[in-house]
Amino acid sequence: MDVSNRFHGLLALPIDPETGKDLCIICFQCERICPDRCIHIEAEGKGKERVLTRFDIEMDKCCYCGYCVEVCPTEAIVFVPHYEASTYNRDQLLYNLDDLHRAAPKEPIARGIIGGRVP
Amino acid sequence: MALRTEELMLNMGPQHPSTHGVLRLVVTLDGENVMDVQPDIGYLHSSVEKMMEHRTYVQNVALVDRGMDYLIALNNEQAYCLAVEQLAGIVTPERARYIRVIFDELNRIASHLVWLGTWAIDLGATTVFLWCFREREMILDLFEKVTGGRLHHVYYRLGGVYADLPEGWVEECGAFLDYFLTRVDEYETLLTKNPIFLARTKGVGTISRADAIAMGASGPVARASGVAYDVRKAAPYEVYDRMEFNVPVLTDGDCYARYLVRLTEMRESVRILRQALLNLPGGEIRARVPMTMKAPRGEIYVHTESPRGDLGIYLVSDGGETPYRVKIRAPSFSNLYALTEMMKGWKIADVIAILGSIDIVLSDVDR
Ligand code: SF4
Ligand code: SF4
């Protein structure tokens, strides 16, 4: 089904096509703003070497409010139009880093639509 | 030999399809006649007021739009954002205030359509339901294009709205309004002069002006009983003071009057929407409000006109990032208690007609 490009579907972490790495700069802003406290981030290393060791989103708790997408400074976390998330098992709704990478859309996603972003 | 008779107590709900949520009505019957009705609530309690004390002011926007009345998410956000903005002295840009009025009114139409459709289906008129939901779907599509959500939007932010209207949306909305007015006439052809509908609603479930005021009824329920009170006129918020519109007031106080009031309200909403779309100014849509905003110590009460009536938010702040106490004055709650007065003396078959006519949503009653 066609949905608008602002649709709050599932969440995903697209990989930067130039560097092949995560866009996330591990600032923990999304983890802090989430009203349902369903994002869990852990990182290792210092400075440029810092890498994500854990990026989990409990999709069963998520209320699709979009605050995480809004606060992210690098648009590392995005909504995808896909919305059919039902499973037979709650464990499958715990999306880890791999799941979130896999969920990322293949085509470029509409960016910069958050016109009201506080600069 | 005289037959022995006694009163019968009947539990209607909580799993009754016509209670629009989970409401239990304890009906005392004498034969077919309703002697007394006591609503029993609490089946949908989500303790949203308490939960709000544990979330920051910004996060709470996501909570009020689903924790309270789920059919009018944007009107809930409106009331909450207005309360926090007034407490913290945030000034919303002009464009955002117009956009908010547009979305409040669209949500009012969508909510009235759900009411009309479901109430008509309670009374046995299936077609109205299908037609109403057809138009509501178009409104939801309009919502989706702007907010990204269909029922729960989290679109309003403290100090503005989250994203600007996409290109062509204003024209699309205008075209919808033209189309919609013709559809309202169409609903009327099915109901307004329909003898079966008239027999079931006209003169049924009356409540006097004095009783409506005493019970704290508001919104269309009060206006159908002759109470000329609309918060948009009495205490205008956003840009309602610049809009030209009438507040329909009828004096019959029966189910039919409530139907006519809501129908006229939809038409008036279209009028407001047209003016807002026409005068929509350019510029900023959001004031600078940090995501970790703190409200100054103090308290505030703000009320707005939601599709169901007078929706108020009372907020106490101790100067921190989270509210100290929130109290929601939900219109459905007060209107539900006016129900007791309306139902006495009517037949059991009228209970559904009367219950549907006050348009309550149970998550608004329980909070
Ligand atoms: S959409 Fe909202 S609830 Fe879901 S992860 Fe993002 S911030 Fe949390
Ligand atoms: S807000 Fe964006 S950059 Fe910061 S931790 Fe979250 S996903 Fe990474």
TrEMBL record, chain B:
**Can you provide one Gene Ontology molecular function annotated for this UniProt record?**
NAD binding
Q: State a GO cellular component annotated for this protein.
A: plasma membrane
What is a single Pfam family found in this protein's UniProt entry? Complex1_49kDa
- State the reactions this protein catalyses: a quinone + NADH + 5 H(+)(in) = a quinol + NAD(+) + 4 H(+)(out)
- Sorted alphabetically, which keywords does the UniProt record give? Cell membrane, Membrane, NAD, Oxidoreductase, Quinone, Translocase, Transport, Ubiquinone
Q: What EC number(s) does the entry state?
A: 7.1.1.-
State whether keyword NAD applies: yes
Q: Where is the NADH-quinone oxidoreductase subunit D domain?
A: 122-290, 292-367
Topology with regard to the membrane? Peripheral membrane protein
Give the top-rank taxon of the lineage listed in the UniProt record for this protein: Bacteria
Localization per record? Cell membrane
Family, as annotated: Belongs to the complex I 49 kDa subunit family.
Protein role = NDH-1 shuttles electrons from NADH, via FMN and iron-sulfur (Fe-S) centers, to quinones in the respiratory chain. The immediate electron acceptor for the enzyme in this species is believed to be ubiquinone. Couples the redox reaction to proton translocation (for every two electrons transferred, four hydrogen ions are translocated across the cytoplasmic membrane), and thus conserves the redox energy in a proton gradient.
Q: How does it assemble?
A: NDH-1 is composed of 14 different subunits. Subunits NuoB, C, D, E, F, and G constitute the peripheral sector of the complex.
**Name listed for the protein in its UniProt record:** NADH-quinone oxidoreductase subunit D
Q: Which gene holds the coding sequence for this protein?
A: nuoD
